[in-house]
Specification:
The complex is a heterodimer of chains A (379) and B (183).
Chain A lengths: L1 H10 L3 H4 L8 H17 L8 H11 L3 H9 L2 H16 L11 H12 L5 H4 L2 E5 L13 H9 L4 E5 L13 H7 L6 H11 L4 H4 L21 H19 L5 E4 L2 E4 L25 E3 L17 E3 L1 H10 L1 H16 L3 H4 L1 H13 L4 H9 L2 H4 L1
Antiparallel strand pairs in A: 1-2, 3-4, 5-6
Chain B lengths: L1 H17 L11 H12 L6 H10 L14 H23 L23 H16 L5 H18 L3 H16 L2 H4 L2
Helix pairs in contact in B: 1-6, 1-7, 2-4, 3-4, 4-7, 5-6, 5-7, 6-7
Classes of the chains: A mainly alpha (379), B mainly alpha (183).
Chain lengths: 379, 183
């Protein structure tokens, strides 16, 4: 882009017109342009022409070895600390902002990108990532000090850390960051809403469904809000029927006194509050869950495997094994690297990239490279 | 005089970025901007002065990298960031041998600004353009940047210290121009 932009300037033409004009460029110039663009897309930073990696990338591209060229870019720390971090921060924060201090959720996305790990481990892994050098405060579910220090010193130095704080382990769903965002106060329904939003790219307005059985809707939801039972049927039920049925997965989790809390026996008290609103409603005794959101428009999520279970790990596996999860991760990578919504731009290409991700073992870094090399990204 | 030099710098920055504004191109977000400065200048983000400037400017940089996030506060933040990274790079290069320097291959840091003729100055501008824009500077751009260099030379004095200030001013203008933060 930069080289082309320069050519336009020299020609004295407006960029808006010039960028669509056919410009005869030699194979070398084209390879140079691609190398610069590929590196910047994957790392978020430019590659100086006097950097030896620039020539290596150009040579690979001229030889048609595009993946090897992309690999050079993903070996730059900025691929992890800028590109993966930008994507991670938007997944970890409730307002989907890329701004915010580093935490265990973001570090895990970054670590998986660095190690070319299986992206399903974000949900079903028994580990998080932490800083790999000494002198950092110890990891804690009660504060974020470890990651604040890590960010100030070198957020590229990451290693896996086995999760030992809770027995029902589910990757970042058992991170302190996620707990702070979604288990704090409330009723843990937010955790279901955001699981769909973050990992299936579906906001509640998209996956709510009018035709679901509401036998799992809890007692704290009024069935005659404002004295109007039709209001419950028309509005409340569309979200609660599907959401409450799955919220059981989070029933043992809470966030109290700034820390992730797990209830070994029974469930978090928030699951059985305001019982007088509708005493005949569902009583939560354990962490069993049921996915009712499988039909109508939600069939497109592409569920595979068990649709009911007990505990967070089983729920996380159901999400991770769905086609919708793979598709969502590709969409997020494409948005970060190419700045475009591939679903709106080219659904067929999204399908191809999603299949590539699954066929290649869900490898995060490989998927980033695949996305960056998509003709839809480089165009 | 310093105010005049600053205004001149901003004018040059606006001129350099004017054409690019017509293109439908995204911009870097705060993280990409900060890391780009560090990668290109080889100034680490752990530098105390750099950290202080980042803390002071980060909230004014684009969050998402959308073109509608470009505003005056953001451009001023870019100038501050570009300034500190340029200053640190010049400091670092000034104590290195020529082959170890990031840029400034043609600069003799023991000489005063007036000893540099137009060709030498253009060579310096070319290095900055290659560093931040990844391309050669046009004659028009070089002329504009030399004007900034001269203004700062007049303002800061024709001294060895004035040379570093003139270099910093020019480097800052190139680093804070729109072409640098386009994505």
């Amino acid at each position: 882009m930069r080289a082309r932009f320069a050519s336009c300037l020299r020609l004295g033409a407006a960029v808006a017109l010039c960028s669509f004009a056919p410009i005869a460029v030699s194979a070398t110039h084209e390879a140079e342009d691609k190398a610069a663009k590929l590196f910047e897309r994957l790392t978020g930073v430019p590659l100086p022409k006097n950097d030896p990696r620039y020539k290596q990338m150009v040579d690979f591209i001229k030889g048609g070895r595009m993946t090897e060229a992309a690999k050079i870019a993903t070996e730059d720390p900025a691929f992890v600390t800028v590109t993966a971090r930008n994507m991670a921060a938007q997944m970890a924060t409730r307002d989907e902002s890329p701004v915010g201090e580093l935490d265990d959720f973001q570090a895990t996305v970054m670590g998986l990108a660095k190690d070319n790990g299986d992206i399903r481990n974000l949900l079903n892994g028994n580990f998080l990532y932490e800083g790999s050098f000494s002198g950092l405060p110890a990891y804690s579910v009660a504060n974020n000090d470890h990651y604040i220090q890590l960010e100030q010193r070198d957020p590229y130095q990451l290693r896996k850390r086995q999760i030992t704080s809770v027995p029902d382990v589910a990757g970042v769903l058992t991170s302190r960051s996620w707990a702070k965002s979604h288990y704090d106060a409330g009723t843990n329904r937010r955790a279901v809403e955001y699981t769909y939003k973050v990992f299936l790219c579906r906001a509640i307005d998209v996956w709510k469904d009018t035709g679901l059985d509401d036998f799992r809707v809890r007692r704290d939801v009024e069935r005659t809000p404002g004295g109007d039972p039709a209001e419950y049927q028309r509005r409340c039920r569309t979200c609660h029927a599907g959401m409450d049925a799955q919220a059981g997965a989070f029933a043992k989790f809470d966030f109290q006194n700034n820390a992730l809390v797990y209830y070994s026996s029974g469930t978090a008290p928030k699951y059985n509050i305001n019982t007088d609103h509708y005493p005949e409603g569902y009583v939560t005794y354990d962490d069993s869950w049921l996915n009712l959101s499988t039909q109508h428009h939600n069939a497109s999520i592409g569920w595979r495997g068990k649709l009911n279970g007990k505990g967070l790990n089983q729920f996380a596996n159901m999400i991770a094994d769905s086609r919708g999860f793979s598709e969502c991760m590709v969409r997020r990578m494409f948005k970060e690297v190419c700045r475009k919504d591939i679903q709106a731009l080219d659904p067929d290409e999204l399908s191809r990239l999603t299949s590539d991700l699954e066929d290649s073992g869900y490898k995060v870094r490989d998927a980033f490279m695949d996305v960056a090399l998509s003709p839809r990204c480089l165009e | 005089m310093k105010v005049r030099a600053l205004l001149s710098s901003i004018a040059v920055a606006s001129m350099l970025s004017g054409t690019a504004a017509q293109a439908e191109i995204g911009i870097k977000n705060f993280r990409q901007i900060i890391q780009s400065f560090s990668s290109l200048t080889a100034v680490p983000l752990t530098d105390t002065d750099v950290k202080a400037t980042i803390d002071e400017t980060q909230s004014r940089l684009p969050k998402f990298g959308r073109p509608d996030e470009v505003n005056s506060a953001m451009l001023l933040a870019m100038t501050s960031l570009s300034g500190i990274f340029c200053q640190k790079m010049i400091q670092s290069d000034s104590v290195k041998t020529v082959d170890q320097r990031r840029v400034h291959k043609m600069v003799d840091f023991t000489k005063i600004p007036s000893t540099y003729n137009d060709d030498a100055r253009k060579a310096i501008m070319e290095e900055y353009a290659q560093l931040f824009w990844g391309r050669s500077a046009s004659e028009m751009e070089k002329t504009a940047l030399i004007k900034t260099f001269q203004d700062m030379q007049t303002s800061a004095g024709d001294t060895v210290d004035g040379l570093k200030k003139a270099l910093k001013a020019t480097c800052t203008v190139v680093g804070s121009s729109q072409e640098f933060f386009m994505y």
